[in-house]
From TrEMBL:
Any GO CC annotation of this UniProt entry: plasma membrane
GO molecular function: ATP binding; phosphoprotein phosphatase activity; phosphorelay sensor kinase activity
Protein's recorded name: histidine kinase
InterPro entries: BphY/WalK/GraS-like, HATPase_C_sf, HATPase_dom, His_kinase_dom, HisK_dim/P_dom, HisK_dim/P_sf, Sig_transdc_His_kin-like_C
Membrane-crossing segments per the record: 18-37, 178-200
Taxonomic placement: Bacteria, Bacillati, Bacillota, Clostridia, Lachnospirales
Domain Histidine kinase: 258-475
PANTHER family assigned: PHOSPHATE REGULON SENSOR PROTEIN PHOR
CDD domains recorded: HATPase, HisKA
Entry EC no(s): 2.7.13.3
Entry keyword set: ATP-binding, Kinase, Membrane, Nucleotide-binding, Phosphoprotein, Transferase, Transmembrane, Transmembrane helix, Two-component regulatory system
GO biological processes: cellular response to phosphate starvation
The reaction(s) this protein catalyses: ATP + protein L-histidine = ADP + protein N-phospho-L-histidine
Subcellular location: Membrane
């Protein structure tokens, strides 16, 4: 079994396939041409031999008529010519009269016998017959003997001519052509080995570069293969993949660093507060309460970070974990706004919901509710006092659209493309002040993408921000 697998693996090799293709393209035509030449030579030689003998027989048939040989076979001149022609072509000549009786046989074996055959009958009707028997190596010809006055066929000359001399020439030609084919095949074999190696050489570079990637990333590993258009396209695709892998690697490293920093900061604060209390022997109760209150806030912050990280872990799972069901989007958004109105009221922020039509969609209510809650909650948190938040819902035949707009501080232009990154904060000091972890928009984006949706942001600093979400009405697995 292992040998079969090894053989199959070798045959799947591009180098082997190119080699076999070039070998076949080079050698098979040579064999076909050789056989074609030999067959053509044989056909031509037989045709020429047949025409020569036929012409000789036609001349001889006229002499037979002029010398009344059909009535009297004692003519030494005619008999001599018949024997000479028979010896010249290493053949045999039979002459029959109109009664199908053999009146002359150059071998002297069948004289006075009767011969009846299809070829003889056709010849009596005026047809000249030429048959070649390659198995027995002879040509059989029939030539009518016609009376010069009445043009009536009064006899038939049946001739068998050996083709041994043609076959001897054919063997010599075949041997020489075989040597030539072997020589050409040897050249083609060497050329196929070289060309197969040459053609797959660029792919070896690809393999080498990919192996280098396993040892670490670097600009020197950027692949460039200018040999073929296909290898250039392959190199470009590889470089794009490599760049994407570098971005992912950098993103993972940054994420781990950010998680470590975010989790360490509250612990460090709690450690400092606790050490401060321990260093004071007779600290007043008020100070204890103040420090313990600060420690409790840091614990809450740590808990919020962990909760958001767990939400991200759940959202990073495959889409098959979604609990899809038909949900009334209007009611879901109204429920979210009802829960957040008290928070908005604390800063006198007007929270408005506008629905253009009833919408029902196939979604995971828990995950998508979390996404829309983050958008509305951020719009409230990063707003100005006495501001407003406007939420609208619309739909067409394929998607439903949710728009969340606010009158807040806006997002700087250079930060817009980063706001969905984990732990990214536009204003770190304000985010810490209001309790943000930098994970809310990352969670929102992951939830929307799991539903095959899209989210866009439009913002201008000090004027406000608008998030637009598009989600399919029917979930596509």
């Amino acid at each position: 079994m292992s040998r079969l697998k090894f053989g199959a693996k070798i045959f799947r090799s591009l180098r082997v396939r190119i080699f076999l293709f070039l070998l076949a393209v080079g050698i098979i035509p040579c064999i076909i041409v050789r056989n074609g030449i030999l067959n053509s030579y044989e056909d031509r030689a037989v045709s020429v031999r047949g025409m020569d003998v036929q012409n000789q027989l036609m001349i001889l048939s006229n002499q037979l008529i002029s010398s009344d040989y059909m009535l009297d076979q004692s003519s030494d001149v005619i008999n001599g010519q018949l024997d000479q022609l028979s010896n010249m072509y290493d053949g045999r000549i039979l002459i029959t009269d109109r009664n199908f009786k053999i009146i002359k046989d150059t071998y002297g074996l069948d004289e006075a016998k009767t011969i009846v055959s299809e070829e003889v009958f056709k010849c009596f009707k005026g047809e000249n017959i030429v048959n070649y028997d390659p198995d027995n190596h002879y040509i059989e010809l029939t030539v009518p003997i016609k009376d010069q006055t009445s043009k009536e066929v009064i006899g038939v000359m049946i001739t068998s001519v050996s083709t041994d001399s043609i076959l001897d020439s054919l063997d010599v030609l075949g041997s020489k052509s075989l040597v030539l084919v072997i020589a050409i095949s040897a050249v083609i074999l060497m050329l196929a080995v070289y060309l197969a190696s040459f053609f797959v050489r660029p792919f070896s570079k690809v393999t080498h570069s990919i192996e280098e990637v396993s040892e670490g990333y670097g600009d020197e590993n950027n692949l460039s293969i200018p040999g073929y258009v296909e290898t250039e396209q392959l190199a470009e695709a590889f470089n794009r993949m490599l760049a994407h892998m570098k971005v992912l690697d950098d993103s993972r490293q940054e994420f781990v660093s950010n998680v470590s920093h975010e989790l360490k900061t509250p612990i460090t604060s709690m450690k400092v507060l606790a050490d401060s209390l321990l260093m004071q022997e007779d600290a007043p109760v008020e100070l204890y309460k103040e420090f313990m209150s600060d420690i409790a806030q840091e614990i809450d912050r740590e808990s919020q970070i962990i909760s958001d990280l767990l939400s991200l872990v759940k959202l990073d799972k495959k889409a098959s974990d979604l609990n899809i069901a038909p949900i009334n989007i209007n009611e879901m958004l109204e429920s979210i706004l009802k829960r957040l109105r008290p928070i908005a009221a604390q800063r006198n922020i007007e929270l408005v919901f506008e629905s253009f039509r009833p919408v029902t969609a196939e979604i995971d209510e828990v995950k998508l509710s979390l996404a829309f809650s983050n958008l509305v909650e951020n719009a409230i948190k990063y707003n100005i006092d006495n501001g407003w938040v406007h939420v609208s819902l619309n739909a067409d035949h394929k998607y439903f659209y949710v728009k969340v707009s606010d009158s807040g501080m806006g997002i700087p232009e250079e930060s817009v493309e980063h706001i969905f990154e984990r732990f990214y904060r536009v204003d770190k000091s304000r985010s810490r002040e209001i309790g943000g972890t930098g994970l809310g928009l990352a969670i929102t984006r992951s939830a929307i993408l799991m539903h095959r949706g899209a989210i866009k942001v439009y913002s201008k600093e000090n004027e406000g921000t608008t998030f637009t979400v598009r989600v399919p009405l029917n979930y596509i697995a």
